[in-house]
Design a protein that fits this description.
The chain is α/β, with parallel strands linked by helices. The chain has eleven helices and 18 strands.
Length: about 400
């Protein structure tokens, strides 16, 4: 259970959940890498107004603050050490295989479907398979089966599909004449993709932030046109924030650690390291000595801080390396970013303000004009969404949230 936020449901939800239908409607929209401080009236007028009239809360990402791990945490309510998606790239010693975030084939079920993990979209369908239907617009991990169940409506990754078209497709699912979706998740890869190239405070990123705001405006317009707005519970969030990196803040492991001694998996600034047999102590000691004067921390797996909830899975390897905020760490770096000497990254300590993601909610289940400043962690979203969808008793769907 979450240690800090046992009352998240009571604090964010209305005193009375209005029964507008036999299957309440929930729409969750994620904008990758959208920092919470991007919400301001001149940049995001729609989101600013939505926060004013709905709920705005200080949500924390789970550690590591990476895309795939946090989207799976949001969907399942489990920390990464429980659901097993521990980075965008990871090695599984049991399978002797490497997972890449570009692998979206249905055969990848073994990476995702770990009991007792159950995404909210499958929970929604299991409660009443004849009346409740879920949909996913490009949400990571929604393409696979869980407990031999698939999501009813699915549109996989498709960069060519315009953002308005994605919204229109979601509305089509929700207004289907015989099997309308009442639980819809949507993922957009911006402003993250642009921030990685140009940095989180670039004009290029602000253009994507404005596009995200216009996309929510289009969603609200379509919900209004179809008569769904007053019945829809909308959560707009992100998976993590974004920190600024400068070219002089790059650590290259090859400069002090022999590459033949180890394999590494993950993505800067967080790496799992598997030393080659016989090199375990040498790799760790070399990294530890370097960390005394360089901007990173190295842990043996068993010594990773408990508050990270990030040590009890086989895909977290014997040595773990974490760069300081604003630093990148690679085996080597032979490329350049489009933004020149400034770019962006994430993955750092989830308590850092730069890693704070967006959370805004609005709809009949939520309070109005409420700002919750006390931090809560995103595992708590799962029991919140269970309540919004009225999936009772919620105890049949366990999670790390509360």
């Amino acid at each position: 259970m979450s240690h800090a936020f046992g009352s998240v449901v009571a604090l964010l939800l209305s005193a009375v959940l209005q029964l507008t239908s036999s299957h309440p409607i929930l729409v969750v929209v994620s904008f990758d890498g959208f920092r919470s401080d991007y919400v301001r009236p001149e940049l995001t007028p729609t989101l600013h107004k939505l926060a004013q009239y709905g709920v705005k809360a200080h949500m924390m990402s789970s550690f590591v603050t990476k895309t795939y791990p946090n989207h799976q945490t949001i969907a399942t309510g489990y920390y990464e050490e429980y659901h097993g998606i521990v980075n965008n790239e990871m090695f599984d010693p049991q399978y002797n295989e490497t997972f890449l975030s570009t692998d979206i084939d249905m055969s990848a079920n073994k990476w995702w479907d770990e009991k007792p993990v159950l995404p909210i979209w499958i929970a929604n369908q299991l409660v009443d398979s004849t009346n409740r239907y879920s949909g996913s617009m490009q949400w990571p991990g929604s393409h696979v089966k869980y407990r031999n169940q698939t999501i009813k409506y699915l549109h996989g990754f498709d960069d060519a599909m315009t953002w308005d078209k994605r919204i229109d497709t979601m509305i089509d699912w929700m207004t289907a004449p015989t099997e309308p979706a009442n639980c819809v998740f949507a993922y957009f890869d911006e402003p993250d993709t642009t921030a990685h190239e140009f940095g989180p405070f670039s004009e290029e990123v602000y253009a994507k932030v404005k596009l995200a705001d216009k996309t929510i405006a289009h969603l609200l317009k379509r919900l209004q046109e179809t008569g769904l707005l007053s019945h829809t519970n909308l959560i707009v969030l992100s998976d993590h924030g974004m920190a600024e990196i400068r070219s002089e803040r790059v650590i290259k492991l090859n400069e002090f650690l022999n590459a033949s001694w180890y394999d590494m998996y993950g993505a800067s600034p967080v790496w799992s390291i598997q030393p080659k047999p016989g090199f375990e102590d040498k790799v760790f000691q070399t990294l530890f000595n370097a960390s005394k004067t360089m901007n990173f921390t190295v842990y043996k797996k068993e010594d990773i801080p408990q508050e990270f909830h990030y040590k009890n899975h086989r895909r977290i390897l014997p040595i773990f390396v974490l760069a300081d905020e604003g630093w990148d760490i690679f085996q080597n770096m032979t490329w350049t970013q489009k933004g020149g000497n400034v770019w962006g990254n994430h993955g750092y300590n989830n308590s850092l303000p730069s890693m704070q993601p967006l959370f805004i909610a609005s709809g009949p289940a939520f309070k109005s004009g409420y700002n919750h400043a006390k931090p809560f962690i995103n595992v708590d979203l799962y029991p919140l969404m269970l309540r919004v969808l009225q999936l009772f008793p919620t105890t049949q769907f366990p999670s790390n949230g509360s």
